[in-house]
């Protein structure tokens, strides 16, 4: 397949575009975002009706196109000496798809799916195979050698389509294992014929036993009902006995509680009377200590006054010390401010001078740029004339070698008699060009260089002066900042001194006597113990009224409890209760209840037996039914397992044959190309069955990582091309004669780019078209043909 022309209407970023493709090494060049990759998306869409990513249908239409505008892609290509044209369109709001396929201008297929089927039959490749075979990116190339072995193996097997076989094989193995486990599990639960017969006989026996037990339960239930009636009558008698007993016990407990409470009140009254006597004695003692309390309180007030005076004295001493330090700071700051004001007075003058130098330096910079442009123009002029002289000299040399029978280099007619005059004319042109144009240009170039050197010297002098002034300005600005900070500090010191002076004037009226303060403290210490004792007495005497009140309350409560005790004792003696008859009735009730519970237990046990038998019968019946269902399932699974095993054996044989061909074929193709590209330096690239890469150097095998970056890049390139060829051979698509590489130059330097391009030139005999996509505009001169976007 050779691509010849592509036409786009309202496709993605292109409103309208038409490109013709030639043979050879073709560069698709354009800046990032110019739509280079879109060209090959359109080719893929034309062939298979899908974009690279299936879910991108809604972004196919150009942003500036309306819903009425048709999205159209036309692709012309040659295949097996026939010309084909594909037209695919999207129409309307829902982007309804349509397609047509022409062969030698004759319509052979229409319809989106039908055209795609025809293309797959023509190319013998699906969309994924087409992409993996003919398209490669820089990321894909570097991944060949940079990836981990397992990742690289997965990537290459994916390119070759082998992962689909692995997936199917894995699914088959898992399905087979699952079926075997299920069949083995069924064997554990399936019943033998003997087991089935035994279970059916067991059902009959269990049913007979169930009927006999049911009749026994009915007899025992009648006896149980009689016992329940007898139990109810006894229970009613017991409730009367119990209530009478509880009433007599409650009265007895209340009488005992009242007796204890009365005794407790009497004890408490004795304690309270004793405590009142003690407090009356303390009252007399307190009266004699009142003078000491007044003396201590007066002394405490005097000490508070002395503490305040002490605080004022300490504050006054601190302010005097601070005033001394402030006076020193004031004098020092004042002197420093005068010095800094003198050192910064030239600041504005130096700023103005710096601005003037900036203007001068910029003007000389512009003059130098002009001189450099003049110098380049003269050098280019000299180079052009020298090239002309070299070409004429080569013509003279060719004519001299060929002789008089040679053709004129201008009109292509034989020279003959004009031979000498032509040579002379050409030599005159060389001499004239050398003497007039080149010599004049060299003189002009010398003058320009001298002027340029003078300008550079002046500029250097001014730059040096500008540097010194800038340094001085920076120093002055630092001092100005110091001056501002020092001035602010000077103001704060002045304000603080004035404030302290006012505070000292206020404190002059206070006088503190240290000896008086100490004597008052000593006297307070002597009286403190007596004062604290007086306070404890006052606290103790506060309880007198509460104790008297508590004593009166206790006497009143004692009288009330004595009256209640007399009443409760009379009620207790009036109650008639017979403990012997009560115990006999309890015994009778226990015997009836025991007999009833025993009978209920027997009946429940019989019911459990019936339930057990019913469950056993149901279990056996379900077991027999389930056995029939499982026998049917087992046979189905055995049939499935046999089919899976047959498919697995055939697939393993196919995979073995395919693996034995793929790696050696990739190795052969890559080795041949690499030897050609490296001009025989490296003869062989080996690809292992695990898709590890090795390069042979002087007969020894080395991992690809051992070699230089450029050698690895070239090896990646030939390996990718070898994989593409192998894919083509496997799919039977040998008529595909183009390759496309997207941004394979990456961030390579110029020498690497040249190596890669040289490699492509080396292999172009094997492919009639090689497309290289790149955003590097400066490499477009390296291609035979360029499509610039």
UniProtKB/TrEMBL annotation:
Matching Gene3D superfamilies: P-loop containing nucleotide triphosphate hydrolases (3.40.50.300)
Instruction: Name the coiled-coil region(s).
Output: 241-374, 438-496, 589-637
Q: Which UniProt keywords apply?
A: Coiled coil
User: Do you know which Pfam families this protein is assigned to?
Assistant: AAA_23
Kindly give the InterPro entries that the UniProt entry links to this protein. Answer: P-loop_NTPase, Rad50/SbcC_AAA
Specify the Rad50/SbcC-type AAA domain's residue ranges. 5-219
Protein name, entry field:
Chromosome segregation protein SMC
Organism field: Arcobacter caeni
């Amino acid at each position: 397949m050779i691509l010849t022309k592509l036409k786009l209407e309202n496709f993605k970023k292109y409103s309208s575009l038409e490109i013709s493709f030639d043979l050879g090494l073709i560069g698709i060049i354009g800046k990032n975002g110019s739509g280079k990759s879109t060209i090959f998306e359109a080719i893929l869409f034309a062939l298979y009706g899908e974009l690279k990513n299936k879910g991108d249908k809604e972004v196919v239409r150009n942003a500036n196109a309306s819903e009425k505008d048709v999205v159209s892609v036309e692709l012309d290509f040659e295949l097996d000496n026939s010309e084909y044209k594909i037209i695919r369109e999207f129409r309307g709001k829902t982007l309804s798809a349509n397609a047509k396929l022409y062969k030698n201008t004759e319509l052979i297929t229409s319809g989106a799916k039908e055209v795609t089927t025809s293309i797959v039959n023509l190319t013998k490749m699906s969309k994924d195979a087409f992409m993996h075979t003919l398209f490669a990116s820089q990321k894909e190339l570097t991944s060949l050698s940079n990836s981990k072995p397992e990742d690289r193996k997965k990537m290459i097997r994916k390119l070759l389509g082998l992962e689909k076989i692995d997936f199917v094989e894995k699914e088959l193995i898992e399905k087979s294992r699952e079926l075997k486990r299920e069949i083995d599990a069924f064997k554990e639960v399936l019943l033998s014929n003997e087991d089935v017969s035994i279970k059916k006989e067991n059902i009959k026996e269990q049913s007979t036993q169930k009927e006999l037990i049911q009749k026994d339960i009915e007899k025992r239930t009648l006896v149980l009902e009689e016992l329940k009636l007898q139990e109810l009558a006894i229970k009613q008698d017991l409730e009367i006995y119990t209530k009478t007993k509880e009433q007599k016990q409650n009265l007895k407990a209340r009488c005992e509680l009242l007796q204890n409470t009365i005794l407790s009140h009497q004890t408490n009254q004795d304690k309270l009377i004793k405590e009142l006597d003690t407090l009356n004695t303390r009252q007399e003692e307190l009266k004699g200590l009142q003078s000491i309390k007044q003396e201590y309180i007066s002394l405490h007030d005097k000490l508070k006054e002395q503490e305040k005076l002490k605080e004022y004295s300490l504050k006054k001493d601190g302010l005097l010390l601070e005033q001394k330090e402030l006076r020193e700071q004031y004098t020092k700051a004042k002197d420093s401010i005068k010095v800094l004001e003198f050192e910064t007075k030239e600041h504005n003058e130096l700023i103005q001078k710096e601005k003037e130098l900036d203007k001068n330096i910029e003007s000389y910079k512009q003059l130098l740029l002009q001189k450099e442009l003049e110098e380049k123009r003269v050098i280019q002029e000299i180079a052009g004339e020298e090239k002309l002289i070299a070409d004429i000299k080569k013509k003279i040399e060719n004519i001299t070698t060929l002789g008089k029978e040679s053709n004129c280099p201008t009109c292509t007619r034989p020279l003959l008699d004009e031979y000498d005059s032509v040579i002379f004319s050409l030599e005159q042109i060389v001499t004239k060009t050398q003497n007039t144009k080149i010599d004049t240009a060299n003189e002009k170039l010398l003058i320009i260089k001298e002027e340029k050197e003078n300008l550079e010297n002046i500029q250097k002098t001014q730059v040096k002066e500008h540097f010194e002034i800038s340094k001085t300005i920076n120093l002055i600005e630092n001092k100005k900042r110091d001056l501002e900070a020092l001035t602010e500090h000077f103001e704060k010191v002045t304000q603080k001194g004035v404030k302290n002076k006012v505070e000292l004037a206020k404190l002059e009226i206070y006088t503190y006597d240290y000896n008086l303060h100490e004597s008052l403290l000593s006297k307070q210490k002597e009286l403190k113990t007596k004062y604290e004792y007086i306070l404890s007495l006052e606290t103790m005497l506060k309880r007198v009224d509460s104790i008297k009140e508590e004593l009166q309350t206790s006497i009143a409560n004692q009288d009330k409890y004595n009256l209640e005790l007399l009443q409760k004792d009379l009620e207790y003696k009036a109650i008639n209760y017979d403990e012997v008859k009560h115990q006999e009735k309890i015994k009778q009730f226990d015997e009836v209840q025991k007999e009833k519970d025993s009978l209920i237990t027997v009946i429940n046990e019989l019911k459990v037996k019936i339930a057990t038998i019913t469950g056993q019968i149901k279990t056996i019946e379900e077991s027999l039914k389930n056995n029939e269902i499982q026998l049917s399932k087992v046979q189905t699974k055995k049939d499935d397992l046999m089919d899976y095993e047959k498919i697995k054996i055939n697939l393993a044989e196919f995979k073995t044959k395919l693996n034995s061909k793929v790696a050696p074929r990739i190795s052969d193709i890559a080795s041949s190309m690499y030897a050609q590209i490296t001009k025989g330096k490296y003869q062989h690239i080996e690809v292992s069955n695990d898709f590890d890469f090795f390069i042979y150097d002087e007969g020894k095998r080395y991992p690809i990582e051992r070699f230089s970056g450029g050698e690895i890049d070239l090896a990646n390139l030939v390996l990718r091309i070898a994989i593409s060829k192998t894919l083509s051979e496997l799919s039977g698509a040998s008529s595909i004669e183009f390759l496309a590489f997207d941004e394979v130059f990456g961030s390579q330097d110029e020498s690497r780019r040249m190596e890669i391009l040289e490699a492509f030139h080396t292999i172009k005999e094997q492919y009639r078209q090689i497309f290289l996509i790149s955003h590097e505009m400066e490499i477009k001169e390296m291609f035979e043909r360029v499509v610039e976007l």
